[in-house]
Write a structure and sequence with these properties.
53% helix; 247 residues; alpha/beta
C-alpha cells in the first residue's frame, strides 16, 4: 500500500514520501479559506485546493465560522473523503475554544480552533525592528483596525502590519518583545504560530495516513478500470488492475 507520509511525524510535521498530500479547503463565504490554505501550506508543506478542483483531495479541511451552519453539517456528513473541521479566525474571538467545543459536541467529532492569519505569517528582521520600535514607544493597539492605521499616508506600516498580524497578533508580538527585547524574526514567527493552534492539526492529519493511502488506491483502481474499458491496451490495463487489487 502506498505510504503518503514520511517518517517525520514525531516532529509534528507532515511530509509526503511520494507525491504531495493534497488538502481540500472549503467553507462558507467569509470563513477564511484562502488564509487557512496558505497556513496549511506554510506549516505542513502540503498542497491545497479551494473549492472544486481537478485534483481530488486526500483530506478535506472544513472551515467553519463562529457557529456551525446547516451547510457545513451537510458537507461534513456527505463527504466520502476524511474530514477535519476547523473553527477559523480563532484570533478574532475571545471565546474561540468554547465555540469550537460547542460545535464539536453538535457534530460528535473534534473541532479545532485555528487562526490561519497567525499560522501563515512569516516575519523578517525589518518587521521585528518595526514592532520593537512600536513596543518601546508604547504604541497602543485599539480594537478598531482603522484607529490603529489612521488615514495618514505615513501610517502605511501600521496598516500593513495590522493586515498581516491582526490585533491579536500585534498584542502578542508587543507582549513577547516586552519580555524578550532581543527576540528574532524566527522567535516571533514561532510564537505566533504556536498561538495560532495550527499545530493541533498535525496529529489528526498524520492519523489519517491509512485512509489517505486507501483513498488513493481506490481512485487508482477506478482510473485503471476506466482505461481498461476504453483503451486499446485493455489486456495490459486488466493485468495492472489485477496486480493493484491484490496489493
Amino acid at each position: 500500500m502506498e505510504e503518503p507520509f514520511g517518517n517525520t511525524l514525531g516532529s509534528r510535521s507532515v511530509r509526503p514520501r511520494s507525491r504531495p498530500v493534497v488538502l481540500g479547503v472549503s467553507g462558507l463565504a467569509g470563513a477564511g479559506c484562502t488564509t487557512m490554505a496558505a497556513a496549511l501550506r506554510e506549516r505542513f508543506g502540503v498542497e491545497t485546493t479551494i473549492g472544486d478542483a481537478s485534483v481530488p483531495p486526500d483530506l478535506l479541511i472544513r472551515v467553519i465560522g463562529a457557529q456551525l451552519r446547516s451547510r457545513d453539517r451537510a458537507l461534513i456528513d456527505a463527504a466520502a473523503t476524511p474530514v477535519l473541521v476547523v473553527a477559523g479566525k480563532a484570533d478574532t474571538r475571545t471565546d474561540a475554544r468554547r465555540l469550537a467545543a460547542e460545535a464539536a459536541a453538535e457534530l460528535g467529532r473534534p473541532v479545532y480552533p485555528v487562526s490561519g492569519l497567525l499560522a501563515a505569517v512569516r516575519l523578517d528582521a525589518d518587521d521585528v525592528e518595526l514592532l520593537r520600535r512600536w513596543e518601546q514607544a508604547g504604541v497602543r493597539v485599539p480594537r478598531a483596525a482603522a484607529e490603529f492605521a489612521g488615514d495618514d499616508p505615513t501610517e502605511r506600516d501600521r496598516a500593513r502590519m495590522m493586515g498581516r498580524l491582526g490585533r491579536c497578533g500585534l498584542l502578542a508580538a508587543f507582549a513577547d518583545l516586552g519580555e524578550r527585547p532581543a527576540a528574532t524574526a524566527a522567535d516571533l514567527t514561532g510564537m505566533l504560530r504556536a498561538r495560532s493552534g495550527i499545530d493541533a492539526l498535525a496529529d489528526p492529519i498524520a492519523g489519517a495516513a491509512g485512509q489517505i493511502a486507501e483513498g488513493r488506491r481506490v481512485r487508482r483502481l477506478f482510473e485503471l478500470r476506466l482505461r481498461a474499458a476504453r483503451g486499446p491496451d485493455r489486456a495490459a490495463m486488466e493485468q495492472r488492475l489485477l496486480a493493484e487489487s491484490l496489493s
